[in-house]
Amino acid sequence: xxxxxxxxxxxxxxxxxxxxxxxxxxxxxxxxxxxxxxxxxxxxxxxxxxxxxxxxxxxxxxxxxxxxxxxxxxxxxxxxxxxxxxxxxxxxxxxxxxxxxxxxxxxxxxxxxxxxxxxxxxxxxxxxxxxxxxxxxxxxxxxxxxxxxxxxxxxxxxxxxxxxxxxxxxxxxxxxxxxxxxxxxxxxxxxxxxxxxxxxxxxxxxxxxxxxxxxxxxxxxxxxxxxxxxxxxxxxxxxxxxxxxxxxxxxxxxxxxxx
Length: 259
Fold this sequence. Notes:
This protein has helices at 18-29, 41-54, 69-79, 102-130, 151-171, 189-202, 206-214, 225-235; strands at 9-12, 33-38, 59-63, 84-87, 133-138, 176-183, 247-250. The chain is an alpha/beta fold and 259 residues long. It has two domains: 9-184 and 224-249, 3-Layer(aba) Sandwich (Rossmann fold); 186-222, no CATH class. Strands 3-2-1-4-5-6-7 form a seven-stranded parallel sheet, sandwiched between helices.
């Protein structure tokens, strides 16, 4: 399917690896020029080189912490006029409700709620002025079904979900859509980290922890960054203009819910 976005320009955050990289690769395959951001310059440059080598698109790599005002301003200045924004940031650490204090929640909010909001506020006016734009926020299945040990993520990402619910309806008349992608467990460094914690708690190997988790997923496997990226690219396409303010699960059926 021709997604109809060849020549568009996208900023993809946390795109050096994992789900962000999957989204960047899928957009590049659709002919979208990219501005990539991540904190580690070495890995980011490797990803940028990989995409340039594989697809005939322009790729700019800007290293920096998108959750800070200074680095966010640097990235936005380098990005210039954008058609597509994909927000993404690593999730806060797991733990127990008794582990976290106010500073922990502020860090989670900065990364997983306030930074995406700041990016949208910066990009939406120009998208509305040109009469076309796409925003995709990578959040988590936890906004549909909270995960006990991920209380920081549950709280911050739920706040972003509420913001998007209202904002998306306000910008839709201008040809701009905002939607959220809710990943379940995918084969990324994040799943390795979570499985390692479970393995340590239960006295089993990380491989066994991963297998045990797969048994709780109807698809009986972890997702791939390629299939996640494909859904992101579709939401950014010309065909998705009637999808507004939605929270789309990509979880292999793990969340058992009607809505």
